[in-house]
Amino acid sequence: MEEATSGIRFQQGAWERRIEVDRPDLPVKGLIELMDNNPIVCADEMSVPGSASTLALIAVGPLLRAGAPLEPPSIAFSFEDSGEDVAAWLATESWTGEAHCVYEPVDAGTVLACTGMAVVRTPDSPEEVRSLYEESFGRSFFVWERPGPTLPWDEVEGSPYAFYSVEVSASDEPTCLVAVRVIADRNGKCGAAQLVHALNLMAGFEESMGIAE
């Protein structure tokens, strides 16, 4: 196995395989937790999203999958990024519109953060919205919910995990705002750990093999 310029290249017998970063043009691509494993196992090459798109998909991917947003989502990032491909990655969850992205750099070491916001029809209970995230990430090795007003930045630093929290605004109107905060390490879920996770799935290994906790 060797690291390619923007990913990993490895060989299984005569089968040469490749994992790229931020290549939404490839047929097999996406946030691993939101993908069907079968195409990954069979692919010659696949792509995982870059840092901004990884956080964006965790933040609003479950909402997009459910067709919940009534207008383009807004996503605020704590770091500089071109944002050119965020909408293309959101399209992996059937979103065909744009996304409003804002970049407000914060010095937080290797920890990256985003807040995704979307207007949805007011649910009977906030748990209806949270259940969309539980369905997507409830069995995930590396994406965990951390309810509460603050996320544990110190715990995520240097780890392979992403932590998120979901807030559904109280509303007597037909629509309400869902805000999802996400944090991850640029070398963890937003970086090398995600590549190794993809390699493990492609090669049929345990998902967490070789990923330091």
List keywords for this structure.
four-stranded mixed sheet, alpha/beta, Dihydrodipicolinate Reductase, domain 2, single chain, six-stranded mixed sheet
Which segments are poorly predicted (pLDDT under 50) over 5 or more consecutive residues? 1-5
Q: Percent of residues in helical segments?
A: 25-40%
Give the biggest beta sheet: 6 strands, mixed
Our count of helices gives: 6
Look up the CATH topology: Dihydrodipicolinate Reductase, domain 2
- At CATH's second level, what is the architecture? 2-Layer Sandwich
How would you sum up this structure, described in words?
- This protein has one domain (2-203): Dihydrodipicolinate Reductase, domain 2 (2-Layer Sandwich), CATH 3.30.360.10.
- It is 25% helix and 28% strand.
- The strands form 2 sheets. Strands 6-5-7-10-9-8 form a 6-stranded mixed β-sheet, with helices on one face. A 4-stranded mixed β-sheet has the order 1-2-3-4, with helices on one face.
- The model is unreliable at 1-5 (pLDDT under 50).
- It has 213 residues and is an alpha/beta fold.
- The protein has helices spanning 37-42, 51-65, 86-90, 126-137, 153-156, 192-203; strands at 2-4, 7-12, 15-21, 45-48, 74-77, 100-103, 111-121, 143-145, 162-168, 175-185.
- It starts with a strand and ends in a 10-residue tail after the last helix.
- The radius of gyration is 17 Å and the shape is globular.
- 39% of the residues are buried.
